[in-house]
Amino acid sequence: MSFAYLDHNAGTGLAEGVLDTMLPYLKQQQGNPSSSHRFGRYTHAAIDHARQQVADLVNVEIDQIIFTSGGTESNNQAISGVSQLFDSGRVLIGSTEHPAVLEPAKRLQQQGFEVLFLPVNADGLINIEIFETLLTGDTRMVSVMWANNETGVVQNIAQLTEMTKARDIVFHCDAVQAAGKLDIDFQAAGIQMMSLSAHKFGGPKGIGALIVDKKLDWPAYVLGGGQEHEKRSGTENVAAIVGFGAAAEKAKQQLTHYQQHCRELRDLLEIRLRVIPGVTIFAQSTERLPNTVFFSLQGFDSDTLLMSLDRKGFSVSSGSACGTGRQIPSHVLKAMGVDDMTALGAVRVSVALENTKEQIEQLAVVIEKEASRFNHLINR
After folding, report:
1. Which of 168, 206, 282, 316 is the most exposed place for a label (fewest CB within 10 A)?
2. In whole angstroms, what is the distance from residue 249 CA to residue 263 CA?
3. How confident is the model over 229-243, as pLDDT tens digits?
4. Contact 48, 62 (CB under 8 A)
5. 271, 307, 322, 365: which one is catalytic?
6. With respect to CATH, is domain 255-378 assigned 3.90.1150.10?
């Protein structure tokens, strides 16, 4: 049996050439970047080069990049900084954000901040009219993701920042799912902070970045030896950083090809899904990531369909999370007004360059057979 990995929004393999770039820093190039001898200077230079590669991916300068352990840490560093700069105030958070934003926002609530969760429409887009009314004189931060990890919905970040810039409100954007898949321009977007994670576009796991506007003096997150512009101390993970840089450069080079290929596969799957009775495709009428399809099959909970697909060689993911032994509907779909039964059946397919039309055709056939089998059972 052949296997098709179709869960690239959860994590990708290393892009071509990335491992080879990393290996010297796991073996012979063992110098600490803070050391002044030749080995230290060599690894320090490697970090500087990677910093430039990441900067080029999202159009920033190298001194705006703080390397972190990934998107979750970057989001926490951004959100938690509010309580170090202010004693109180309002914080606006997208209702469809990743838990790495929602959970630190809830902590701000516990610390006395007024945290409001921005409503979205049926397509998952922030309600602009309501957003503007919530911007008050004591609003400290807005955090809205560039692209949603479940639905792939792309927010109009520039439209939102037009309203926050005039009020001098810090705008943080979780771009973990967008970087490497969309053309990201930090400067043009008008944001002040942005989170990235390497393993979403061909880099190693455990490395990411927080991008900070040069005019913004955000508080240090980890104290110690003063690494990462004195914002996140600790000896750098040189091999991972080098891999991050190599993946960023590769992603930038192949972005157009990536988008064309993935969009073709996404559209092919959706064409096949639309003719299957009981299928709902979420947010299909708005701009989404080119590689993401999020759908529900009537009569199936997502775990049942996932396991069936897995047995047949297709690795996809669920739009729901499991907690304390029970299935919970996706908070993203709930925010979009989707009913519990439909949300509990949500399945995400996320493709990449390695995937083929043949795999998508085969996946569609299997889903169609599962739907037919279910309809046969209930009509007996």
Report:
1. 168
2. 21
3. 888 999 999 999 999
4. yes
5. 322
6. yes
